[in-house]
Amino acid sequence: MSVPGPTAAAAHGKASGPLQQFLAFDYGRKRTGVASGNRVLRQAAPLTTVAAEGDARFPLIAKLIAQWKPDALVVGIPRHPDGRGHDNTRFAQRFARQLHGRFNLPVFEVDERYSTTEVLSSRPRDADAAAAAVLLQQYFDASEREAAAAAAAAADVTPPADDPKESTP
Q: What pTM was estimated for this model as a whole?
C-alpha cells in the first residue's frame, strides 16, 4: 500500500513548532470517522463518527478539536486504484481546506486507497472511526520512514572541499 509522507502529501497551513497531537478524518458525505493519535507514541485510536452532512458537521468537529487540542489534522483522500481522482477526491480535498480555514490548523492529506477494505476485513464496531485510525497510523508510519531516510541522507553528506578538517598540512 503506497502512502505519501507528510512532505509528499498536500498540506494546508504552516506548522509552528513540533506537531505531536493529531486528529484524523475519514471523510464521507453523510458520516465522517474521527481518530486521535500522538506522534511520540506513534499510535492512532478510533474516536467516533460524526453523523452529519455539510456544514452541520463542523460544530461537532469543533467540540472534538476543543476537547483533544490537536496540533494538526489529517484527512484521507480517496482515489481510484491507479491513483486517479474521482468525485469523492474533490469532496475530501474541499473538506480538508474547510478544516484549515475554520480551525486554522495545519491539515495533511493522506492517500486512503484500500484503508476501508483493510478496516472492513477486521469488522470493527465503528468502521468509519477505525478507517480514520488507519489513515492516521499510515501518516505516522510514513512520517517515520521519511525522517529515517532524511537522517540516513544527512549521515552520508560529504564535507565541503574547503573544510579545514579535510585539508592536508
A: 0.77
